[in-house]
Design brief:
With about 170 residues, the chain is of the alpha/beta class. It has five helices and six strands, in the order βαββαβαββαα. Helix 3 (about 85-95) packs antiparallel against helix 4.
């Protein structure tokens, strides 16, 4: 018999305007395989919808995608974003947050990441540093997958356990 795909309640929200296409493709594929819904939020249509993929096109206002994700995401959801200040707001809400390189932001590390970013921006502004190339390839995608998959499994197990907690087999 064909295994039954479980439709999960938690969502993975993708701040899709700046999300690398390889990562979007991985997350959409993973949503189809694992049964969670991938919510892509951007100021333009990026891809079509399916049973496990939803596309929210927002206005082209500053932080509009962030505001939609912040408002609609729930504690058991996962969000993928490059925006550290937005990530901090999500962490404070209790949402699991990753950047596109697999760093999971927590209450213990988010402030340090923001300080590092500010220092880097200040050094760049005075001509010191800032020559880092912002490229995204297989190495970065692999690191994301390595960090994301165990967290995804935790979310799946937690949801299945909470559904079955009241129903002993």
């Amino acid at each position: 018999p064909t295994p039954k795909i479980i439709m999960l309640n938690f969502k993975t929200w993708i701040d899709a305007d700046s999300c690398p296409s390889q990562l979007r493709e991985f997350l959409v594929s993973e949503a189809e395989k694992s049964g969670f819904v991938a919510m892509l939020v951007a100021n333009r249509k990026i891809l079509g919808e399916s049973s496990n993929v939803r596309m929210i096109v927002c206005e082209q206002k500053k932080d509009e995608a962030d505001n939609i994700i912040l408002e609609q995401s729930e504690k058991n959801d996962i969000v993928v974003t490059r925006d550290l200040l937005f990530a901090k707001r999500l962490v404070e809400k209790g949402v699991t947050v990753f950047n596109d390189r697999g760093t999971k932001f927590t209450k213990d590390n988010i402030d340090d990441r923001i300080m590092e970013r500010n220092l880097s921006m200040n050094l760049s502004a005075i001509g010191l540093g800032g020559n880092k190339k912002n490229q995204y390839g297989q190495k970065e995608l692999k690191k994301f997958i390595t960090e994301f998959k165990p967290e995804l499994q935790k979310h799946i197990v937690a949801e299945i356990y909470s559904k079955n907690a009241g129903n002993p087999m």
